[in-house]
Write a structure and sequence with these properties.
By secondary structure, the protein is an all-alpha fold. The chain is 82% helix and 0% strand. Helix 4 runs antiparallel to helix 7, helix 6 packs antiparallel against helix 7 and helix 9 packs antiparallel against helix 11. The radius of gyration is 20 Å and the shape is globular. 59% of the residues are buried.
């Protein structure tokens, strides 16, 4: 482990409660942007008279832009600080959300959603980097778990609210709601957030420095192990998010409001997983917690895939196993996200950006595959989640155990 990876984190610049609230809102902008409009996705697809593959692009293009933008925004935040990047990114997010709600065609909607994804990258990337600015890796996992509990609460509200807005008003109102969330988060950052980066790197954007930093991060076995974990963990979630509205509404016959309740249960299971994570961390450490979470994930994914393979097609056959998967997700994400940036106190923005980019690249590929393989059954969703649950277990039981840092556990 390089000497820099042992450097102490900066002292927190605000109260712990304010830090966790800020992180929860910054991380929560992702489910607000994705989950809230999912109940309206079939309706907006029909409204524009567009094929399902184009509708999937409103999600996958957003996530590809989200991943790509972080490659620039991460080094920018290492050079100029987290606060200015957050202020500019959140302002652009609000503008893009309003533009998407007013889009006259599917092509315009895809364009605005792409800009929205790029702006969203500033919030999520900075949140991960802030955790490393202020905390050492083991404590960072606990703080990230608390923040992701807040994200879970936000996600609980998103799908039911999206379904309600879509039922009572229309899909454009569901697309406008994220603008209000973004504006509120922008106000909090502008009024209460103090810069967390103690020492800026004036060379962070120099091409040679940037390439050297990326190479250092990508060669670090701890980063690779935790990046693989977070990518597989997000992939299992994204498979569900990208396919669930079509499966539950069009295949299984739920109303948009009922689908919102399924998403609510999904978020509650995830919140429970973050509490399990905080219970396990002081007892089993990061690696032990991840290994135990992988048991939950693999059990749920295998049960879901096995039921689909047997021809069982029902809400319970998806939601029951999904509960186990989401419990595991609540363990893997806080441990994985804090672990990926842990070795890089002087380049947390770049490490966070690369981790986010890989996650979103995987999501883009999954979305493209689902757009052409949804076949009117539950099988694409179930088999996809089964596949990624196996990947999570293999990574959690091998790479993380071998290369995950034990320091601070």
């Amino acid at each position: 482990m390089p000497p820099s990876s042992l450097a102490p984190a900066a002292a927190p610049v605000a109260s712990p409660a304010l830090i966790v609230l800020t992180l929860a809102l910054l991380l929560g902008i992702q489910p607000v942007t994705t989950d809230l409009y999912l109940p309206a996705l079939p309706a907006l697809t029909a409204g524009f008279g567009a094929p399902v593959a184009h509708a999937q692009l409103t999600l996958t293009a957003l996530l590809l832009a989200f991943g790509l933008s972080q490659l620039l925004l991460g080094p920018l935040s290492d050079r100029y600080g987290r606060r200015p990047v957050l202020l500019c990114g959140l302002a652009a997010y609000v503008v893009a959300a309003v533009g998407g709600a007013l889009a006259p065609s599917m092509e315009w909607l895809i364009g605005w959603r792409t800009l929205q994804g790029a702006a969203m990258g500033a919030a999520v990337m900075a949140a991960r980097a802030i955790v490393r600015d202020l905390y050492l890796p083991a404590e960072g996992a606990r703080v990230m778990s608390r923040a992701l509990t807040g994200l879970g609460v936000i996600a609980c509200l998103c799908a039911p609210l999206g379904g309600l807005l879509s039922d009572l008003a229309n899909w454009r109102v569901a697309l406008l709601a994220p603008a209000l969330f973004g504006a509120g988060t922008l106000a909090l950052v502008a009024l209460r957030f103090e810069e967390s980066l103690a020492r800026r790197n004036p060379e962070a954007l120099a091409p040679r420095t940037l390439l050297r930093t990326w190479a250092m991060v990508l060669r670090h076995p701890t980063f690779l192990a935790f990046c693989a974990l977070t990518t597989a963990s997000y992939a299992v979630l994204f498979t569900f998010l990208a396919a669930s509205s079509f499966v539950f509404i069009q295949v299984l016959g739920l109303t948009k409001t009922q689908y919102g309740l399924v998403m609510l249960w999904n978020s509650l299971a995830y919140i429970a997983g973050t509490f399990v994570c905080r219970y396990w961390l002081p007892r089993h450490g990061v690696r032990g917690s991840i290994a135990r979470g992988a048991v939950l994930t693999l059990s749920g994914g295998t049960l879901m895939g096995g039921l689909a393979l047997a021809g069982v097609q029902s809400v319970a056959a998806i939601v029951g196993p999904l509960t186990l998967v989401m419990l595991g997700h609540g363990v893997h994400q806080p441990c994985g996200q804090s672990g990926a940036v842990g070795p890089f106190p002087q380049a947390a923005g770049a490490a966070s950006a690369l981790n986010g980019f890989v996650m979103m690249l995987a999501a883009f590929g999954i979305g493209g595959w689902l757009g052409t393989h949804l076949d009117g059954t539950v099988r694409p969703l179930a088999y996809g989640m089964w596949f990624w649950s196996v990947c999570i277990a293999l990574i959690g039981w091998t790479l993380v155990q071998k290369y995950g840092e034990a320091r601070g556990e």
